[in-house]
Write a structure and sequence with these properties.
The complex is a heterodimer of chains A (114) and B (117). Chain A is an all-beta fold and 114 residues long. Chain A contains no helices and eleven strands. Chain A has strands at residues 4-5, 10-14, 19-25, 32-38, 45-51, 56-59, 62-67, 72-77, 86-93, 103-104, 108-113. By secondary structure, chain B is mainly beta. Helices cover 0% and strands 50% of the residues of chain B. In chain B, a hairpin with a 5-residue loop joins strand 4 and strand 5. The chains are: A mainly beta (114), B mainly beta (117). Chain A binds chain B through residues 4, 32, 34, 36, 41-46, 49, 51, 89, 97-107, and chain B through 4, 6, 9, 32, 34, 36, 41-46, 49, 51, 59, 91, 93, 95, 97, 99-100, 102-111, 113.
């Protein structure tokens, strides 16, 4: 029973446009959400995170939005660049003082087309 | 730069062999590290939480006798896949986070591709 869901296995976006990746969760105990980027045969690279006390966090081209009532978060990348092509994982954790592992979605493969 | 180092990156071995994977935090002390496993086109699944100086905590369905975890120091955790079989072939990834004060992200190693023949 997946607690973190990324319903789009892949997404194709034109270079320069906005990429929007979506994530839904079911566990209301989650209080910290993260987005990771992953290339084949490499570990995930941390991109951006958001605490449940916020509804938006921005870092350069990356913005994460959190809608707690809908249990939904999204990652916006603007403008999209060819180097953004990768698999993006949404992850969540519950309160645990750092002692809890992350629960991941299945990932969305973002393809940026020139 | 990398904050978590994982070694080896790729292992091919015969069925029945035991394989040890090392995970090191490079610039901070990690009292807790995590081990994940990823099958092709699937999400990363938490296998166990490695606690420095105490026993690891395993997720449901993960055999503790099969996947031995040792966290002997604040910068090193090891995962040993004992008597590996072809079904153990997978991508194993470790992570660590700086001591949590105000939500710290986990940083991941580059993973180990394990192939059992």
């Amino acid at each position: 029973d997946q607690q973190v869901k990324q319903n789009s296995p892949s997404l194709s976006v034109q270079e320069g446009r906005i990429s929007i990746l979506n994530c839904d969760y079911t566990n209301s105990m989650f209080d910290y959400f993260l987005w990771y980027k992953k290339y084949p045969a490499e570990g995930p690279t941390f991109l951006i995170s958001i605490s449940s006390i916020k509804d938006k966090n921005e870092d350069g081209r990356f913005t994460v939005f959190l809608n707690k009532s809908a249990k939904h978060l999204s990652l916006h990348i603007v403008p999209s660049q060819p180097g953004d092509s990768a698999v993006y994982f949404c992850a969540a954790s519950a309160p645990g003082g750092g002692a809890d592992g992350l629960t991941f979605g299945k990932g969305t493969h973002l393809i940026i087309q020139p | 730069g990398a904050v978590v180092s994982q070694h080896p990156s790729w292992v091919i071995c015969k069925s029945g062999t035991s394989v040890k994977i090392e995970c090191r935090s490079l610039d901070f002390q990690a009292t807790t590290m995590f081990w994940y496993r990823q099958f092709p086109k699937q999400s990363l699944m938490l296998m166990a939480t490695s606690n420095e100086g105490s026993k690891a905590t395993y997720e449901q369905g993960v055999e503790k006798d099969k996947f031995l975890i040792n966290h002997a120091s604040l910068t090193l955790s090891t995962l040993t896949v004992t008597s590996a079989h072809p079904e153990d072939s997978s991508f194993y990834i470790c992570s660590a986070s700086r001591p949590r004060q105000n939500n710290q992200p986990q940083h991941f190693g580059d993973g180990t591709r394990l192939s059992i023949l």
